[in-house]
Amino acid sequence: MKDFAKYKVGYKRGDRIFTESDAGENMYIVHSGRVRIFRVIGGLQVDLALFEKGDFFGEMAMFEHRPRSACAEAVEETELLNIDPPTFADMIRANPEIAVRMMRKYSIRLREANRKIEELATLSHTLAGVEDIPAPRSLPTPPPPLSAAAPHATLVVEGSGRSYPILQAETQVGRMDHVTGLKPEVDLSAEDVSRHISRRHARITYREDRFYLSEEIGAMNGTFLNGEKISQQGVLYPLEDGDRITLCQLHMIFRVEPSATSTRA
Questions:
Q1: Do the domain assignments include residue 68?
Q2: CB 3.0–4.6 Å: which of 103, 155, 170, 239 could bond 164 by disulfide?
Q3: 205-214: string of b/e by CB count within 10 Å (b at 16+)?
Q4: Dihedral (Cα; 61, 63, 65, 69), 10-degree rounding
Q5: 3-state DSSP assignment of residue 22
Q6: Which of 69, 95, 121 is the endpoint of a domain?
Q7: Number of domains in the chain
Q8: Helices (H) and strands (E) in the chain — how many of each?
Q9: Do the domain assignments include residue 137?
Q10: In what helix (H) or strand (E) does residue 115 lie, and over which residues does it extend?
Q11: 174 touches 199 (CB < 8 A)
Q12: Do 163 and 154 touch, CB atoms closer than 8 A?
């Protein structure tokens, strides 16, 4: 899908992309801008999701051949890729990784839907006067923190000079997902205003007394270690003090200092 210009469709702020119950079999990929998904209930607009660059929507109508289940509207000046079923099939055949990315996004959406259902159920029981309601369990368990003996590691962004500490044994690096409200341990949203870095782009792992870098499955636009592109997603690559990590076009230096505990030892 190298020649994607022919699929681009532009929308101005407030333009309606489709309305609930409209017929349609095409899906959309956000190339730039933002799109909100909402339903009209009792005369009120209820927001369901906010999609930005790299997100897709409208696929339910394409897969199920049913009318649109919600409305879509451009929040700002927006460009979308309008994908019909034959084009989508060609995309999957040419690049199976697209299917992996879609599955991961579905997983995130399902987890968020489960969380909202549990919150609504808890609220319903509370209003009914039921006591001892268990708290929602769908929020992900945070990764374990580094041990006191582990070295102090940071990512220093070239240009801005900002430092991002590595505090967990499994540290996810990427951008905040405004659809779900989830954000990685190292949130580079402030560094990547053009939103080229994937929300879950890379991971830094501390294992057996050393750090490793890996690219997350489904990440786009490349991960580089000392100028060499990481060719296999999910594979651990050893990290050393002073290594240069590049996510898309954002350059960072990996720094490691011995902990006070290990120094005294």
A1: yes
A2: 155
A3: bbeeeebebb
A4: -30
A5: coil
A6: 95
A7: 2
A8: 4, 19
A9: no
A10: helix 97-127
A11: yes
A12: yes
- Print pLDDT tens along the chain (265 aa): 456 788 999 999 999 999 999 988 899 999 999 999 999 998 899 988 899 888 889 988 877 778 899 999 999 999 999 998 888 888 887 877 677 777 777 777 777 777 777 777 777 666 665 555 454 444 455 667 877 778 899 999 999 999 999 999 999 999 987 766 678 999 999 999 888 898 889 999 999 899 999 998 778 789 999 999 998 888 899 999 999 999 999 999 999 988 655 544 4
162 lies in the same domain as 91: no
Q: Residue 201 is part of which domain span?
A: 152-264
* Beta strand extents in the chain (DSSP E only): 8-11, 16-18, 27-32, 35-41, 44-51, 56-57, 71-74, 78-83, 152-157, 163-166, 170-174, 186-187, 202-207, 210-215, 223-225, 228-229, 237-238, 244-247, 250-257
At 162, the amino acid letter reads: R
Are 36 and 72 spatial neighbours (Cβ–Cβ below 8 Å)? yes
